[in-house]
Amino acid sequence: MSEQQPDQPTLTPQPNRILAEPATVENCARDFAAGADVRQTMAQQDARGRS
Contact at 8 Å (CB) between 27 and 21? Predict the structure, then answer.
């Protein structure tokens, strides 16, 4: 049988990888490069919507 949900949510903060990683130029450049395919897909979808 499933466990019963508590009445109140846990208020303990959870670790956050984004906040734990320092915002260095190298990290920002890596994140920007990793998102290139997403930006390209969004641009293609946007261009189709404007046609």
Answer: yes
Locus of tokens 């956050």: 16
Q: How far is CA 38 from CA 1, 27, 31, 43, in A?
A: 42, 18, 11, 9
Alpha-carbon distance 30 to 37, whole Å?
Answer: 13
Tens of pLDDT, residues 3-49: 676 678 778 888 888 888 889 999 999 999 999 999 999 999 999 98
The residue behind tokens 């130029």 is 25
**Residue 2 is encoded by which pair of tokens?**
């499933």
Longest dimension (CA), the chain: 54
Count of residues making up the chain:
51
